[in-house]
Amino acid sequence: MRANQFILLGFLSILFFSCQKEENEVIQDPTQNLNKTSPLVNLLSRVSQNATSQDNVLDNSSCFSVQLPVTVIVNGDNVVVQTEADYQTVQDAIDAFSDDDDIVNFIYPITIQYQNFSTQVINNSDALDDVLDDCEEDDDDDFDEIDCITLNYPVVLNIYDSNNQLASTLTITNDVQFYNFIENLDDNEFIAINYPISLVDSNGNNVVINSNSQLEEIIEESIDDCDDNSGGGGGGSANFSDVITNGTWYISYFFEDDDNETSDYIGYNFTFSATGTITVVKASTTTTGSWSNYIDSGDDIMDLNFNDSNLDELEEDWEITEYSSTVIKLKHVSSGETDYLYFTKN
Questions:
Q1: Is the pLDDT at 99 greater than 80, yes or no?
Q2: Are strands 299-306 and 285-296 parallel, antiparallel or unpaired?
Q3: CA gap 121, 135 in Å, rounded
Q4: How far apart are CA 225 and CA 236, in angstroms?
Q5: What would the pLDDT profile of 138-161 be if each residue is shown by its tens digit?
Q6: What's the average model confidence in pLDDT over 62-74?
Q7: What is the mean pLDDT of residues 64-89?
Q8: Are 145 and 175 in contact (CB under 8 A)?
Q9: Where are the beta strands (DSSP E) in 117-188?
Q10: What mean pLDDT is predicted for residues 33-50?
Q11: For a 10 Å CB count at each end of the chain, is N or C smaller?
Q12: Which residues are registered as beta bridge partners of 322?
């Protein structure tokens, strides 16, 4: 009996170390590990999602797009929208009169397609209103798609499930598969992209990518181009000072030294004044700080300083990568390490 126990223990030890070896083979470089909260994963989700903002002149919603061709009624005239180029025809029809209601009415039925590429047939205006109401309830006012970047497939992912210590490899062949894979990632799953991969950038150039940092940088640099060219991207159009000084903010994401430290700042609320001061409130405690915004080597910078040692980790000259009326995304790169700080409006 005792001999059998030793044999069993020996087998389990071999199995354990085999799993560890497989994990190391699949994801060897910790800097390449990604999970569902990683900023790069969010960017890739926006690159691969169905572009739902391009046709907002038709449906006034980024929750879904309307499949073409479709016929709409604008100011009493029927307009057949065959291609994306015809969106401008609809806009011109709206702009033709200054005393009309600018409402675009569809000739039903129409088919709509959501961000995850699933479709739904809409048979009348009441059904469309129901969808729009649901979209408003689910809307987190996040950023739009990044539609001027095209990934070249296949893309191979190494996946590790930390709960079950299982490693696997998945070949992604299209945007539909990639977007829905990201949407269904579990908290315990980690992925590593098998580089090199390639993409077509906002200028139509084919670019070979060899690392997470390079991929993240080229996507971020393209966001303004996407926004300018097609309405996607979600870059802030309002003045940054007007946005940050409007309302109170909390830290929705803080990542430093390869660790997610967001929980350290639960309960803190930040108010930024136009004069450059910050008021920070947590429960019954109030402290202060200062902020400034400037351009350095072409980068939009937000500098933060605080009078509370508990907030020392936030003191940095952060690059503003994106902002909207409800979310501000900052990052700082130093000595090969990238830290992230996101503020979300209360």
A1: no
A2: antiparallel
A3: 16
A4: 13
A5: 555 457 789 899 999 999 999 999
A6: 95
A7: 94
A8: no
A9: 119-122, 150-152, 155-161, 166-172
A10: 94
A11: N
A12: 329
User: Residue written as tokens 């044999």?
Assistant: 7
Residue 281's alpha-carbon distances to 220, 276, 302, in angstroms, are: 32, 17, 20
Q: Which residues contact 27 (CB under 8 A, 6 or more apart)?
A: 33, 158, 160, 167, 190, 192
H-run or E-run covering 162: none
Length of the chain: 346
Does pLDDT of 228 surpass 70? no
Q: Which amino acid is at 132?
A: L
The strand pairing partners of 72, in sequence order, are: 79, 106
Q: What is the mean pLDDT of residues 207-235?
A: 76
Q: Over 80: is that where the pLDDT of 286 sits?
A: yes
Q: What token pair was written down for 60?
A: 């006034």
> From CA 24, how far away is CA 22, in angstroms rounded?
5
The backbone torsions φ and ψ at residue 103, rounded to the nearest 5 degrees and listed phi first, read -85, 135
Tell me how far apart the alpha carbons of residues 112 and 240 are, in angstroms, rounded to a whole number.
34
120 by DSSP, 3-state: which? strand
What's the confidence (pLDDT) of residue 146? 92
Report CA-CA distances (Å) from 175 to 41, 57, 207, 293.
Answer: 14, 24, 18, 37
Tell me the residue ranges of DSSP E strands in 103-154: 104-106, 110-114, 119-122, 150-152
CA 76 – CA 66 distance, rounded (Å): 20
- On the question of pLDDT at 4 being above 80, the answer is no
Side by side, the strands of the sheet bearing 206-209 are 150-152, 197-200, 206-209
End-to-end CA distance of the chain: 64
Q: Kindly tell me the burial class for residue 135, based on how many C-beta atoms sit within 10 Å of its own C-beta (0-12, 13-18, 19 or more).
A: middle
| Interior/surface letters 105-123, b for 16+ CB within 10 angstroms, e for the rest | ebeeebebbbbeeeeeebe
| pTM, entire model | 0.82
Residue 229 has pLDDT above 50, yes or no: no
Walk across the sheet containing 166-172 and list its strands: 166-172, 155-161, 189-193
Does pLDDT of 13 surpass 50? no
